[in-house]
Specification:
Two copies of one chain form a homodimer. Chain A is mainly alpha-helical. Chain A has 21 helices and six strands. The first copy, chain A, is elongated and about 85 Å long.
Amino acid sequence: MQKRLEELFERLNDLYYTRKFSHLKTLLLEAEPADIAYFLEELEEKDKLLFFRLLPKEVASNVFVELDVDAQENLIKNFSDSELCDILNNMFLDDAVDIIEEMPSNVVKRILKSTTLENRNLINELLEYPEDSAGTIMTPEFVALKQHLTVEEAFKYIRRNGINKETIYTCYVTDAKRKLIGVVTIKDLLLANPSDLIETVMDTNLLFARTLDDRESVVNLFSKYDCLALPVIDKEGCIVGIITVDDAVDVIQEEATEDIHKMAAVTPTDKPYLKQGLLTIFLSRFPWLVLLMLSATFTSLIIGVYEEKLYLITPTLFACIPMIMGTGGNAGSQSAVTITRAIALDEVKFKDVFRVLLKEITVGIILGLGVSILCFLKLMFIDSLYNEVTPLIAFTISLALFATIVLAKIVGAALPLLAKKIKLDPAVMASPFITTIVDAVSLILYCALSLAIL
Amino acid sequence: MQKRLEELFERLNDLYYTRKFSHLKTLLLEAEPADIAYFLEELEEKDKLLFFRLLPKEVASNVFVELDVDAQENLIKNFSDSELCDILNNMFLDDAVDIIEEMPSNVVKRILKSTTLENRNLINELLEYPEDSAGTIMTPEFVALKQHLTVEEAFKYIRRNGINKETIYTCYVTDAKRKLIGVVTIKDLLLANPSDLIETVMDTNLLFARTLDDRESVVNLFSKYDCLALPVIDKEGCIVGIITVDDAVDVIQEEATEDIHKMAAVTPTDKPYLKQGLLTIFLSRFPWLVLLMLSATFTSLIIGVYEEKLYLITPTLFACIPMIMGTGGNAGSQSAVTITRAIALDEVKFKDVFRVLLKEITVGIILGLGVSILCFLKLMFIDSLYNEVTPLIAFTISLALFATIVLAKIVGAALPLLAKKIKLDPAVMASPFITTIVDAVSLILYCALSLAIL
C-alpha cells in the first residue's frame, strides 16, 4: 500500500507542476479523498488553494473533510462565499459539524451564513448536544421509509433520494410522527418480492442509541452486534439521526488513543503526533509532570521522617526502597489498566465491584507470595554480595513487598471502578495516580514494618 | 440499552423455565445473537445444550459464533455429528476458522470431518496463514461479478447467490483468472441503468490488502478510507477473500486492548476480564512482575554503592531519589506511549526517527527547564521545612532532574521506533522497560552529579 501511495504522489506532483491540469483532474476523480488530502497538506502554502480549486466538484468536499484543521481554516479564509457554499452543501452534516467545532468563531459565522436555512437549523441542533454524546457523532441524513410502501416503491424512493445519504444499506421505517418502528436492509429488500410490503419485511427488534448516550458505550454496540449503522432516537422515540460504522471506527480509535494517553499522564490531543506543535506537546505533558513531581513530596517527606532510624538499622533498607515502590507501582497499574480497559469495553460495570475485588485480592495474594519468595531468595543470594543482608532483614523486606503487592492490587482495582461510579474518568485514575498513591502507602508500610520487626 | 437487555433476559428465563418453547422460539428468532449467547453462557451447565437445541436453525450458528471458547468446546463435545455439521455449514468460514484456532486438536479433527470437502480445503488454506496476518481475518465468501454482465444480470446473480455471503454491499469484479479488476457497490448498481455493463460502472481504483500483510496496518485502512470491506489478494493478484468492517472493528478493539495491556506489563489474553480464570490472570502478570522486581536489583546495587557517600553529604539526597526516579519514569513513558500509539496508527514510521527525536529533545529541554525550576522552588520553600536544603543542594537535585527528564524523553522516543525497526513489539518497550532503564540511568546520573558538585 505504501508503494501505491508513493506512485500516486509522484504522478500528482508531476501533473501539477507541468500544469497538465486536465490529466490531473482525471486522476483526482479516481484517487481516494484521504490520499489527495494528505498530498495537499504537504504542498507549499501558496499552492494549497490553487490545487484545491483544481479538484472536481464531486470530490472537493470529500477531500476537504479529510484535511487537518489548519489546512481547513486556511482554505476557508481564502474561499469566496460561493465556493464555501458549494463545498458545505456537498458535505454530510455530521462532517460539517465536526469542522465547525474546531474553527474560531468568525469562521463559524461565515460557514453558517453560507449554508441553507434548513441545514443551518440542523447544524445548530447538532452543535447543542453535549460533548462525547451520541448526538455529536450522528448525521441526520438517512433513508426513512414508510411501512405501507411496497419493496418496489421503496427501491424507487431509494434510487431517487439515496444519493446524498450517508448510507442506503440500512433504511429506517418510521410512522407519521417520525417514531422509529423498524429497520430494513437493502439485502432484505433485494431478497424480498417486489410486491411485499415494507412492514412485512422489516425487522422490529430494534437496536438504537439515545442522543445523550455516551459515545464510547454507543460505539461498543457496533463491535458487539456487528452493525453497519445505528439509529439515534430522542426522548420521544423519534429518530433524529444515524451513526454509521465508519464514524464508529474513528471514535473507537480516538477513544483508545485518549485512554492510552491518559494512562501515560498525557492530556489527549486531536492531532496526529507529527502534526502537533511543540507548544501542544508541552502543554499536554507539563501539568502532569509537575503534578506527579509535586506529589513525590509525600514520599520524600516520609523518607525524611524515617531516614535516620532506618539507616541506623541497616543501609540495605534504603537500597530496597526503589524496588518496593517500583514493584508496587507495577502491580497496581497491572490491575488498574486491565480494569480500566474492561470498563471502556463495557465488560465490567460498577455492580461487579465485589467480584472484581475478590478476584484481584486472590490474585494479589498468589502473586505477592510468588514474587516475595523470589525476592527473599534474591536478597539472600544476590544482594548479600554487596549489601548487609540477614535472614530477618530479607524476611522483613519480602513481607513488606507482599503487603505492597496485595494493597496495590486492591487500590488498582477499586479506584477505576469508583471513578466510573462518581463519573470521573477511570483512565486518568489508572496509571500515574495509582502509582502515586501506592508509592506513598507502600513506603509508610515498608518503614513501619521495618521499624517494628528490626 | 442495559434495560432492554434485562427485560429480554427476564422473558427468556420465564419462557424457558415454564417450558413455553414455541413462544421462546419466536423470541429467539427476533433477538440479537450476541444477546442470546450472553444469556446462554450464564445458564447452568446442564441447561446449555438443552437451550441451544431450542434455537431455530437460522440463528443457531450465529449464536454459536458469539459464545465464549469454553461454552463452544463443551457444546461441540455434546453435539451429534449431524448437529455439528449443520451448525458449521451455516457459519461463515472465517468464523469457523476463528473457532478452530481455539480448540484442542481432537475437537478440530471432529470439526474438519463434519464439513464438506470444499469447505475443509478452504479452512485448511485459511489456517495456514501466519498469525496476525490479513489472511487470518478474511473470509472467502464474497460476491464476485464478471465485467461483461449488465447491471440487471448482476442483480439477478446477487439475489441468487448473495444470501450466504458476508456482505453483498461491495461486489468484486474479476477476470477469467480470478484477478481483481474492479469493485462495484450496491449503491452504484442501484443508481445505474439496468442495461449498463458492470465494467462501465465499476471503480478500478482499488484498495486492497495482501494475504501476508500485518492485520493491524490493514485495519488502519478501514479508518483511513472509510470502507465497508477490503479485498485480499494473493501474490498473483487474484482475490482470495475479503475483510469486512465488522471484523476490522473487532481487530481494532483487540489490538488496542493488547497494546494497553502490554504497556502495563500484562501479557494480553483473549478473554474478557470477568471470564478470565485466576490462573490466566496470574500467568499474564507474574513473569512481568518478577522481571521488573529483579531488574530493580540494578537500582539497589547503585544505591548500595553510593549510599554512604551520599548520606555523609546530606540525607536529603536520599529523600529525593523516589522523586527523581518517578518523574523520570513518567517523562519517559509519556514519550514512549505517545510514540508507540502513533506507530500503531501508522502515523509515525521508522524513517521519521530523526524528526521525532528532534521534537522530543526540544520538548524535553523545555519540560525539563519548567519542571526543574518548580522543583528548585519546592525544595527551597517546602522540603526545607523538614529536610536540610541549601541552595547548592537544591540546585544539584534540580539539575539532575533536568538531565533525567531530557534523557527519559530520548530513551522513550527512540526505543519504540528501534523496536519497530528490528520487528520487536513497540508496546512491550513502551512502558515498564523504559521505566526500568530510565530508573537505572537517572539514578547513576543523580549520584554522580551529587558527588561531583557537593
